[in-house]
Amino acid sequence: MIVEMRIYHCAPGRLPALNDRFANITLGFFKKYGIEPIGFWTTLAGPSNHALTYLLKWESLAERETKWNAFQADAEWIAKRAETEAKQPIVERIENHFLSPTAYSALR
Predict the structure, then answer these.
(1) What is the average per-residue pLDDT within 32-58?
(2) pLDDT of 71
(3) Which of 47, 56, 68, 76 has its CA at a distance of 20 to 30 angstroms from the CA of residue 25?
(4) Record's superkingdom (predicted)?
């Protein structure tokens, strides 16, 4: 198992729009493409409270490449994402990390 940690750094004031997009649009596309989220978090304390962090579970990098690329190429997803950012961008930058659990991790 591989866990992908993605951190979306939002433009100031745009985190509510990102949360809305995930809840009402993105999660439907994740389901369509078999993308399995582990969880989603906002930053309670830290350098910025304009971030959404989430984890995705993958069996392999090959699975991730196939499913993520199909999701990103979906014309309906592209159109809906563009609609949500028509007046103002939501995400300024994205970080992602691929994590491999240790032998003593509860999540393996």
Answers:
(1) 95
(2) 98
(3) 47
(4) Bacteria
Cβ atoms of 38 and 75 closer than 8 Å? no
Q: Could you tell me if residue 108 is inside a domain? A: no
Distance (Å, rounded) from C-alpha 50 to C-alpha 69? 26
Give the total number of structural domains in the chain.
1
Q: Does this model's pTM top 0.90?
A: yes
Of 48, 49, 47, 54, the C-alpha closest to 23 is 54
| Contacts for 98 with CB less than 8 Å, ≥ 6 apart | 2, 3, 4, 61
For residue range 64-90, what is the model confidence (pLDDT) as tens digits? 999 999 999 999 999 999 999 999 999
Residue 107 lies in a domain: no
- Residue 92 sits in which domain range? 2-99
Q: Which DSSP helix (H) or strand (E) runs through 8? A: strand 2-10
CB 74 within 8 A of CB 80: no
Assign residue 43 the CATH number of its domain.
3.30.70.100
Is residue 72, in this structure, part of any structural domain at all? yes
